[in-house]
Design a protein that fits this description.
Two copies of one chain form a homodimer. Chain A has helices at about 20-35, 50-55, 65-70, 95-100, 165-180, 200-210, 225-235, 245-255, 295-310, 315-335, 345-360; strands at about 10-15, 45, 75, 105-115, 125-130, 150-155, 155-165, 185-190, 215-220, 240, 265-270, 275. Chain A is α/β, with parallel strands linked by helices and about 350 residues long. Bound molecules: 3-isopropylmalic acid (2 copies).
């Protein structure tokens, strides 16, 4: 295995709320894992986003941050509290949405799998939601210029959902390729009994693409029925591919069924770039109290290292990713957990335990 | 209590698939309950819809059926299998959607409560989803003429979501009034961090209307977080008000968490008309095998009788509704259940047991 000795550079966008705690925690965990496997030290590139960026640059997502991201292929985005930004920044695409759209990070990969030591409603669940990340019912990102949401009168608001064949094709390929390395089953989630043209196009293109993967079994489900199936027989699903909004809802649902949204990792990626981002929000109510659970972002960072490993054919990054996963699952299995899981560990204590475990093995 | 001796007339639309079994089952149950409480016999008005209507009238929802509904204020709609209709009827608003829109049945009321004798993931759940039923992301019903879905090119499909202040106001009043007779808590579900204008309008109007109900506590939640909350702490919610598509997804989810989608009743109503309709579909895979669970439609019919009772200030119809609920819950508590719940009863046996229980008490 060729080990590329070039220093890996990773952007670090702290964001808001608990971002100030969980982003440094994820960073320390990556550093520990890289050192444990003898990989070169990561060069972190800190970039402002959110309240800090408003204070420094008058914008939650300054042009300087976007320009710097342009020169990177991998970064970690902390949660942002866009609903709380001053009025002039509201009604705009959120920082996360802007970055996804700008860098065409079309695939949002969200695994949901139970952890030993964490109570799960669906302990047998082991699935991955592959969420289309650039269009669909997320009208705020649907227009080439401006937003697909508008108000023709003060009493009427409209949102234009868009589904394109191209976006369906590429997300379908992502899903089928992923399934080939897993249990070879893809479930396409749509709502074609009601939205026959948009979600019907999504479903039909996915089924078409699926024909190119004869080793993968393909099923289709309506989104409402799918929510019920996930509760009743979540273990039956392997890879679930769906449009942006359905993916948002079903991934929070699956994450919670598998244990907790606080554990739900996610990677946003294109062929050439990837962004680690937890599936949860900024939780301003518990921010600054050393209570936040950094697990989701640590596991998202591991997904980022896997992606970098594949892209650079640099196996050592994948070993570091494995170390993070082992460190996190071992810590949880040992009963060390933050308050949201009923545990007693602070964010700092949990992070330290994970780090020690990573270095010990 | 004034007992209106006028014969109640109720439309009966059998629909497709298991409709042929569960609609007659619901009908028999209503007949038993009316007789048990000494109410006048229902005059049932059978109207074709679905495959039968295609065969007889060349249309899944013939004008003659719509005209007849015009003369009624209450009816029972069986499930329809619109996805299976011949090509020329696909891409059209479904029969159920057409009826909801045509008669402006703006409120879709969907209770989710666990039943003794039925395993539930969320045994403490007791909530009601109040789903806006005429607009929102259901683009197929958003245009005054035609559909809000269209394809500008063969590779691009668009769907126009619409939220109007008027529709938000009336569904909010429905929710707050309902909450006043319950635990006085309303949760408004939106996605305003992404769809700030449309779902933001929905949220803001609901909060405005809520100010007129100072005895009712109001909270707001993002739809993705709400899916997770329902899993983690479903018992905390009382009345949940949301737009059409979110209501569709969250009601299937809640129904399953409370036991099974096969038990999930629903009423579609305006001030002047109401339609009982189960929250589940036509299940063509088990149709004609005497296996379907008629519970959801029986309980939907009980909701219809309650609605008629209130509208006509005719208490006896409410007593009949109570009898149906007691008959159904007693039967399930006694361990008599259809195969979907792991029981041994056929549709006919289950219906007979419910009927006997209703007449016995
Ligand atoms: C806040 C964020 C993690 C969330 C998500 O990706 O689920 C949101 O951006 C969205 O897309 O609805
Ligand atoms: C099939 C039917 C029961 C379903 C529903 O009301 O949930 C559908 O009509 C919808 O609106 O998505």
């Amino acid at each position: 295995n060729p080990v590329d000795a070039t220093t890996p550079r990773i952007g670090l966008l702290v964001g808001d709320g608990i971002g100030h705690e969980i982003v440094p925690a994820a960073q320390r965990t990556v550093d520990a894992a890289m050192s444990a496997v003898g990989a070169p030290e990561v060069q972190w590139v800190e970039l402002p986003v959110g309240y800090d960026a408003i204070a420094e640059h008058g914008d939650p997502l300054p042009a300087s941050t976007l320009d710097a991201l342009d020169g990177l292929d991998a970064w970690v985005l902390g949660p942002h509290d866009s609903a709380g930004y001053p009025a002039q920044f509201r009604g705009r695409l959120t920082p996360g949405g802007t970055i996804r759209k700008r860098f065409d990070l079309f695939a949002n990969i969200r695994p949901a799998k139970a952890f030993a030591g964490v109570y799960a409603t669906a302990p047998e669940m082991d699935l991955v939601i592959v969420r289309e990340n650039t269009e669909g019912f997320y009208a705020d990102r649907n227009m080439f210029t401006g937003s697909g949401e508008f108000m023709p009168t003060p009493d009427v608001a409209m949102a234009v959902g868009v589904v394109t064949r191209r976006a369906c094709e590429r997300i379908a390929h992502t899903a089928f390729r992923l399934a080939q390395g897993r249990r070879r089953r893809v479930t396409v989630v749509h709502k074609a009994n009601v939205l026959s043209l948009t979600t019907g196009l999504f479903r039909d293109v996915c089924v078409e693409v699926g024909a190119q993967y004869p080793d993968v079994e393909i099923r289709t489900e309506h989104v409402d029925a799918m929510a019920a199936h996930l509760v009743r027989r979540g273990a039956d699903f392997d890879v679930v591919v769906t449009e942006n909004m359905f993916g948002d809802i079903l991934s929070d649902l699956s994450g919670e069924l598998a244990g907790s949204l606080g554990l739900a990792a996610s990677l946003n990626s294109s062929e050439t770039r990837a962004m680690a981002q937890a599936a949860h929000g900024a939780a301003p109510d518990i921010a600054g109290r050393n209570r936040a659970n950094p697990t989701a972002l640590m596991l998202s960072a591991a997904m980022l290292l896997d992606w970098m490993s594949e892209r650079r054919t640099d196996a050592v990054l994948g070993l570091a990713a494995d170390r993070i996963r082992l460190g996190v699952t071992g810590t949880l299995a040992a009963g060390v957990a933050t308050a949201d899981l009923g545990g007693l560990a602070s964010t700092a204590e949990f992070t330290e335990t994970v780090g020690a475990r990573i270095l010990r093995r």
